[in-house]
Amino acid sequence: MPEHHFHLRLHALGEIDTSVDSDSLKGESPQGDYTELGESRPARPGALARRHLIVAEGKPDIVGSSAKVFHGETSRWNPEELLIAALAQCHFLSFVYLASGAGIDIRAFEMEATGTLEWGSDGKGQMTRVELRPFVSVPGGQRDQAQALHHEAHEACFIARSVNFEVAVIAQTISLS
């Protein structure tokens, strides 16, 4: 089986406070002791550098940060959103591929996706579930066939096959007259 390799670079933007060594932060909750402040930045050194740029040759850059709950900037993509987006995009592309092979005429495709991040008793978080809600419009006689393809698309999506948490697909397909 052939292998495919993907490459990108991540560049930190802004200042990195190195006055705190990483060993002194071990065992702390990712929220730190400053969550009660309700601020968008931490009240301790060593945690300011969240802005970053994801770069891949020939593609637009992705400007990133951490999620707001981790003192990031809401105007930038965070890793949790990018993971959810990867699952949504993979399902979409798998579905379109299968629908094309089956002769299904997709007239419209939209999807909402949500993810759940939970904290364990060890204070570490992990994604526990992503829910994909594709909404597809097809000609009248293709509705049932298109609806059934979502299961196949989910099984074919190599991103969904690579994660260790539930990815639920709750599809709605409507017939156009």
What does this structure look like?
- The protein is an alpha/beta fold and 177 residues long.
- The protein has 2 domains: 1-77, no CATH class; 80-176, 2-Layer Sandwich (GMP Synthetase, Chain A, domain 3), CATH 3.30.300.
- 21% of the residues lie in helices and 27% in strands.
- It contains 2 helices and 7 strands.
- It has helices at 79-101, 143-156; strands spanning 9-12, 52-55, 62-64, 108-119, 125-139, 166-169, 172-176.
- Strands 4, 5, 6 and 7 form a 4-stranded mixed beta sheet that branches. Strands 1-2-3 form a 3-stranded antiparallel beta sheet, with no helix packed on it.
- Helix 1 packs across helix 2.
- It is globular.
- Residues 19-44 have low confidence and may be disordered.
List the helices and strands and how they pair.
Elements (H helix, E strand, L loop, with lengths): L8 E4 L39 E4 L6 E3 L14 H23 L6 E12 L5 E15 L3 H14 L9 E4 L2 E5 L1
Parallel strand pairs: 5-6, 5-7
Antiparallel strand pairs: 1-2, 2-3, 4-5
Structure characteristics:
177 residues, alpha/beta, GMP Synthetase, Chain A, domain 3, 2 domains, four-stranded mixed beta sheet, three-stranded antiparallel beta sheet, 2 helices, 7 strands, globular
Radius of gyration: 20 Å
Shape: globular
CATH class of the largest domain: Alpha Beta
The structural domain count equals 2
Largest sheet: 4 strands, mixed
**What is the helical fraction, as a range of percent?**
10-25%
Separation of the first and last Cα atoms? 43 Å
CATH architecture of the largest domain: 2-Layer Sandwich
Protein name: Organic hydroperoxide reductase Ohr
InterPro entries: KH_dom-like_a/b, OsmC/Ohr_fam, OsmC/Ohrsf, OsmC_Ohr_Peroxiredoxin
Organism: Pontimonas salivibrio
Region (Disordered): 20-43
